[in-house]
């Protein structure tokens, strides 16, 4: 490809309304152009990248045995009423009336359509298992579309749906898809994690998210150095603590006149923060509860809320705290409450000896506190804290924290949709069975933005090679003045092409400064400069996108470097 | 590909609601499944064919220098208001309101969006010419969607839009696109014609339609055996007639008591129908007009309507005829009218001598009539008739008639959209110039149906090889009983694969009858049968889809036959 015959339109200025770096760089490189809120045109440059992602996804889905179909974007209301989602899906569903006033929506997802397809196509267990996928345009009417294609309204998605006679077979295909996803994100050259996820509103039995790691990611993730364990910070678990040491101190009341936080108390007493205990007072339908975590930890609301009796808990008011503990916040503790209370101790707290808690008396804490001696053993011991960086993981590794951008999701849906829509097959005994379903999504257009969030510097995008619009840019210095420069570049390009390396020839006749700036901005992994001076010396200037400096290479060395 | 791992779902019955053969066969083969009126899911089999078409279109568009982009399907109302089409486009425009009550439509075409893209992207004549294309889903809310994907509401289209500084450059690119279209339809293996077309409502200066020939086609076409001339029957022209012979008969009144048609008069008089003249009485704003065509011809309403003063003409009433000619229909003629009338003679009528017309008197015609002697030379001589099969074409060839399905269209739009939307560039003198535009469409999904209309028999589809889901089907007889059969088939498939021939292995274990019926129904061009008996004899059974019988070939001959 010659850049003079391509349409490249870059800008130096960072657009004022683009908040995140991928959005800024996609606009500056001209990869996308906004048509309306959350609706973008993909320019020739942007589409080249999008198609690379699409092709890798398609190849790996095919290799994993999934079969490609193409479902419509416009879906009839009646189908969505069969599953109850016409009413339940919410404002993201773009509802449409056609000229005959029939109700439709622009598909934000295709569970209803594929289940309808399956109930007509699949009659016998002999046709199972089967996994249908498509790469197709979806629309979600986001209330606040932003960040360019990261959270667009119209977007490109790969969605797959598998059908099974048994849940065991679904679980097998689920693992097959997980493995395919790992191959896809590995091939794309992205740093990513497969993360345990709550299945949330979509329902089903098991699910996992795939996140591209990037500082700007919306989701907090925890992963272990000891295995591929990764989880959303909201659900991540550290290793259980070791056994509780024996008590070695007597309980004593200590003066903490203004020290209301664990940090301040630990500092005053000259002890480790890990030996203090934070008491969090909450109310539930069953009454007052004191949740205890170590001073260096924080209560994880999702974990706490999942314990029996803790659904819909709320913070206790000062009056409720006074009534149950007889003290004001800042000095609370589980020892000797005014009224009987339920105590829930985090596993780490239950494993402490000689610890420090509030004395339920303004200006005082209790030190050297021990379970079973100074207060009863806790009624409930559970993991109710959020993990922190440096925690030991269950696999023996260390917990690290990162931020991620969700680009994929695998679900075991089970029979939710098949049941609602009557998607059955006959089993070996000729008995009608509702099929079990899995669904597997990848945000194809979102991956492009996520890759930029992970791979950029102050000069622009640094594409992972498999996603780059071209692997190599061959820059011509003064092509109009010297036919030898064009000839040498074309010969180089021909050899690279033969070796399967995709090149672009920058023959636009720009001066080196603006030309190099463009090539760096659009993130081409390898840059080769062909100049009269270099040819005279028998060399080409080569520079990798992320390298600090260029090097002079002869033709053979250059080809070797570029894998040709 | 093994058919046992694919999803093939064929039906023997012809669906009752499918009127045309392509719709019937696409349903029977399971290529498509209806989701709603005019909205279809493409099954794995259907999508394989659709993708083949798409890929050939993409390759040739790229080779022609067009650059691929991807525009959104959802388009804002404001853009359509800039060109006035929001109000004018009519009911086919699917209008949508989003959650914020902003107006959008599902794009039925993309002139507005690409012109908006261009006015932001293109600033200088140096960026021209450029031709942007996309292969993308469109929606037209047809009032009566029918014939499956032939006239669907949601469909896949390739649309291209070129931008130019001058009309001359537009004309050059228009020819470039026509040549690309010819390559595309030739590569697809379809019999087609490039047809001169009225640009109709879309506007612009020149346009041509591409039609796949098929008996079931909606459009009547005329083409010449002498060149690539082809035109819609409505606008096709034959060669001009030779000079008028000298008069040799005297005019005489002949008795035609019940003969009101030219056919009956010619029969009665024992003369050729070509020597009779049909008089068609019409009214215009300027008064009464008698249009004359030969008895073997018919008036072409479009040609007649384009003559000066003939826009909005209508048939004359009996009262109007009586007032002007003093006779009733069936005996009308241009000789001696009651009042002065305008006579428009078809070129062929003006070239007649000694012809027959009505006498403007019930029960009589005039024979031996001659221009300039018996009546004045006609006021207007023009081509106002429809061509008929066998006419001589201007290129010396013979006119033939056919029916066609429109699958492509190229337009020189000119400045209509660029003017309305202010899409300008600076020219060499730094002066702002409105760009000239071309647009070029191909109905990708429609091609699939059109190809079937052209290529089928009583057993099913007969795909042109480039569009076939697979080129070769290798059918296994009793694969479970004989491992040698599978082994031989796999080895054959490996050799064909190496030669770039795409095969499918029918390892479903069906009996030969149903298996062969499926393979024929889905139209695979080449069928190879691998059986125990054949292997013992050292042969494979081969049959081309359109062949009358199978032949026994040894391995080398088979591979040679299949181009491997």
UniProtKB/TrEMBL annotation, chains A, B:
CDD domains hit by this protein: ProRS-INS (cd04334), ProRS_anticodon_short (cd00861), ProRS_core_prok (cd00779)
Pfam families, per the entry: HGTP_anticodon, tRNA-synt_2b, tRNA_edit
SUPFAM superfamilies: Class II aaRS ABD-related (SSF52954), Class II aaRS and biotin synthetases (SSF55681), YbaK/ProRS associated domain (SSF55826)
Cell location: Cytoplasm
InterPro entries (alphabetical): aa-tRNA-synt_IIb, aa-tRNA-synth_II, aa-tRNA-synth_II/BPL/LPL, Anticodon-bd, Anticodon-bd_dom_sf, Pro-tRNA-ligase_IIa, Pro-tRNA-synth_IIa_bac-type, Pro-tRNA-Synthase_IIa_type1
Keywords, in A-Z order: Aminoacyl-tRNA synthetase, ATP-binding, Cytoplasm, Ligase, Nucleotide-binding, Protein biosynthesis
Domain Aminoacyl-transfer RNA synthetases class-II family profile span(s) in chain numbering: 38-464
E.C. designation(s): 6.1.1.15
Entry note about domains: Consists of three domains: the N-terminal catalytic domain, the editing domain and the C-terminal anticodon-binding domain.
Protein name (Swiss-Prot/TrEMBL): Proline--tRNA ligase
Native organism taxonomy: Bacteria, Pseudomonadati, Pseudomonadota, Gammaproteobacteria, Lysobacterales
């Amino acid at each position: 490809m010659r850049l003079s015959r391509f349409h490249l339109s870059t800008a130096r200025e960072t657009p004022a309304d683009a908040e995140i770096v991928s959005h800024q760089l996609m606009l500056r490189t001209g990869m996308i152009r906004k048509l309306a809120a959350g609706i973008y045109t993909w320019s020739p440059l942007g589409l080249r990248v999008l198609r690379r992602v699409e092709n890798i996804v398609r190849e790996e889905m095919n290799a994993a045995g999934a079969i490609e179909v193409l479902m419509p974007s416009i879906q009839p209301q009646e189908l969505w009423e069969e599953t109850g989602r016409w009413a339940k899906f919410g404002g993201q569903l773009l509802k449409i009336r056609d000229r005959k006033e029939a109700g439709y929506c622009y598909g934000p997802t295709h569970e209803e359509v594929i289940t309808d397809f399956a109930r007509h196509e699949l009659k016998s267990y002999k046709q199972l298992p089967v996994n249908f996928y498509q790469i197709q345009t979806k629309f979600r009417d986001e209330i606040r579309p932003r960040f360019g294609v990261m959270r667009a309204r119209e977007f490109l998605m790969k969605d797959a749906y598998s059908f099974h006679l048994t849940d065991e077979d679904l679980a097998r295909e689920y693992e097959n898809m997980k493995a395919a996803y790992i191959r896809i994100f590995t091939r794309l050259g992205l740093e990513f994690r497969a993360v345990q996820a709550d299945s949330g509103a979509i329902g089903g039995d098991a699910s996992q998210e795939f996140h591209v790691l990037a500082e700007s990611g919306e989701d907090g993730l925890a992963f272990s150095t000891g295995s591929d364990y990764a989880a959303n910070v909201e659900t991540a678990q550290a290793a259980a603590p070791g056994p509780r040491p024996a008590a070695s101190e007597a309980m004593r009341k200590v003066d903490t006149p203004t020290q209301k936080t664990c940090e301040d108390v630990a500092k005053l007493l000259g002890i480790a923060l890990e030996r203090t205990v934070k008491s969090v007072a909450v109310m539930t339908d069953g009454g007052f509860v004191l949740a205890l975590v170590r001073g260096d930890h924080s209560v994880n609301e999702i974990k706490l809320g999942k314990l029996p009796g803790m659904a819909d808990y709320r913070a206790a008011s000062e009056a409720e705290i006074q009534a149950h503990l007889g003290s004001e916040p800042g000095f609370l503790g589980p020892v000797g409450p005014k009224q009987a209370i339920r105590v829930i101790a985090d596993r780490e707290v239950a494993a402490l000896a000689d610890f420090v808690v509030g004395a339920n008396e303004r200006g005082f804490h209790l030190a050297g506190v021990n379970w079973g001696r100074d207060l009863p053993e806790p009624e409930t011991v559970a993991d109710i804290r959020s993990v922190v960086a440096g925690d030991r993981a269950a696999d023996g590794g260390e917990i690290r924290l990162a931020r991620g951008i969700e680009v994929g999701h695998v679900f075991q849906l089970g029979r939710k949709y098949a049941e609602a829509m009557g998607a059955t097959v006959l089993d070996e005994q000729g008995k009608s069975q509702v099929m079990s379903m899995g669904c597997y999504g990848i945000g194809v257009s979102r991956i492009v933005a996520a890759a930029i969030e992970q791979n950029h510097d102050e000069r622009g995008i640094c594409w992972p090679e498999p996603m780059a619009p071209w692997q190599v840019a061959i820059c011509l210095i003064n092509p109009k003045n010297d036919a030898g420069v064009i000839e040498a570049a074309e010969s180089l390009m021909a050899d690279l092409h033969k070796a399967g390396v995709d090149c672009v020839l920058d023959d636009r006749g720009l001066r080196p400064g603006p030309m190099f700036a463009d090539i760096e901005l659009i993130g081409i992994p390898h840059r080769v400069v062909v100049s009269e001076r270099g040819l005279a010396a028998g060399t080409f200037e080569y520079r990798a996108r992320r390298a600090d400096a260029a090097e002079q290479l002869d033709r053979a060395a250059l080809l070797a470097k570029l894998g040709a």
